[in-house]
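agent> fetching stored inputs for the phenylalanine docking request
agent> found them:
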Amino acid sequence: MQDKTSSLRETFKELIGRVNSSEEIEKLRVEFLGKKGHIASLMSQLKTVPNEEKKAFGQSVNELKQKIEQQLAEAHEKIVKLEEQRQINAAEDYDVSLPMNIEMGSYHPITVIQREVEEIFRTMGFTIEDFSEIVDDYNCFEAVNIPKYHPARDMQDTYYLDNGQLLKTHTSAAQNSIMRKYGAPLRAVFPGRCFRNESTDACHENTFFQMEGIMIDEDISISNLIYFMKTMLSEVFGQDVTVRLRPGFFPFVEPGFELDIQCLICGGEGCPSCKNSGWLELCPCGMIHPNVLKYGGIDSEKYTGFAFGLGLTRLAMMKYGVKDIRVFNSGNLKALSQFIGK
Ligand code: PHE
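agent> prediction call returned; pasting tokens
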């Protein structure tokens, strides 16, 4: 009988030396100390032990039991520490102070939305045009009916170069060149980066993106404008959007409008996103002023057209729920890479 306890002791010693996790310790505990474990089975053999040996046998089984309990506890303590260390080591793979793993690049959210809108207009027969960021006073202002000293220039203060050129304040700066390049009829969208002398805050940036669109043909009317805007916005937001026009002043359109969309969050009921008005201002637009057509070499008696200036940055904020406009130019990859696959 004594042999049994000592062989069990040896087996346990060997097994406990090999455990590597708290689960393995628990398994060992059940195997040895559980209701149907080795110790219990030894105890059940007590009745078969001759009376004179009962005491010694009982004692040695008890000792073994205590020893096993103690060793299990010690091993458990060690393993828990080890496991903690393993966790810490694993966690060290993520270090906020390390540069991002940018092997898997992502498009900038503005690029994503720009391409999406381009694609929508492409399917509606519009060409996509590129235009420089540095322009002259004529293209940015005079060609779009904003003469020198016109008060409308106040709203579009910008950055001037020594040679008198400037960073374009709106994509309308490309209207004249594009009209001259293609003549009428014409359907074109032209995205671009724009600059204004703004103090920045969550809603204002000195650098932002717009997408201008113009459609010029015989008999183009405000209904065409509404149709194209509504179709495009419904595609972008993946649901039917309700739009409304309010009068707005821009020297290069007549009549001019502010196009609002019904708030997609509250459905027009009023909520913090739409400042309780139920509407969100999205896109200034209007019928191209005859002067602008004339400057662009287009017969304003024969042709009419509409123009809009979609705020791409603003659209991206709305679509992705970005609360602070400054994120877009921040270079903060943690924020910007969230658009992977969008
Ligand atoms: N260019 C105007 C702006 O940036 C927007 C606009 C474009 C308005 C086209 C009407 C028509 O403020």
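agent> quick read of the result: Residues 170, 172, 212, 250, 253, 256, 284-286, 307-309 surround phenylalanine (CB under 6 Å).
agent> awaiting further instructions
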